[in-house]
Amino acid sequence: MHAWLCENPTGVDALTWKELPTPAPGPGQVLIEIRAASLNFPDLLIVQNKYQIKPPLPFVPGSEYAGVIQAVGEGVTHLKVGQNVACLSGTGGFATHTLAPAALCMPLPEGFGHVDAAAFIMIYATSWHALMDRAQLKAGETVLVLGAAGGVGTAAIQIAKAAGAKVIAAASTDEKCELCRSIGADATINYTTHALPGGFRDAIKAATDGKGPDVIYDPVGGDFAEPAFRSIAWRGRYLVVGFASGPIPSLPLNLTLLKGASLVGVFWGDFAKREPKANAQMMAELAQWYGQGKIKPVIDSTMQMSQLKAAYAHMGSRGVKGKLVMVN
Question: Cα–Cα distance between 137 and 5 in angstroms, integer?
Fold first, then answer.
């Protein structure tokens, strides 16, 4: 097998493509021949030693992937050789093969292709857990999605629309705003032309007829957080999803009082570990929605696994719309 090996987490340039022995699965594991692996923001942080999870060295990055089971370990009875699966295990994806915990593998129904499957679990699980579980989104409410043209942003738009909400999508270019409208957003805000903080707040006010959004989905953080929170509706829920812009913002807590609003943390990874039954039920419903055509990952482009460093550079340029997927 071949894999991108991180022996020194100083950044993307330190990754090397190496030939390694193909391992045999141990108890509770499966060996997967990887057909596709998606690039997520944590995949960048982890090779820079900036992610909250720091795997022992050396490791193979690539949190999310899909492929075909080649072998099963002792005790694995619900999966079989030749079966198509997707998996989000945190590492191992940027390779030709990997060992994965069988418990984390999602069997793929007929017609669920590897590229879509590799781009599915993280963004839809995060966005469903945020909107439907943590925010208790109701039909007829208004959702503002920040960073709306990215992976989790596009998933949030689709889930909110499927739930009957009105969606306002905020993104950094007209092209990205057009993408958001094409997948269901009712209105868009280009925050390059509606400058922070005043222009951005004015645009939110105009898009919500002065009421403000009931739910704000924020995977961006940084300078957007305070003006967005100041614009929230009475009893609004502000979903803290991530900090793609870099800085972790500070908010004056009196804003929660004045707005009767909630700051709500979203940590899907821990939810999946702490509440496995609820997570499994959620994933089954998401797979059903995919089959019904209600949701479908937006794929920016596919690139050969050997082009991983170029893919990281593309992601770092902030030009990605939806998900980047590496293929073998």
Answer: 41
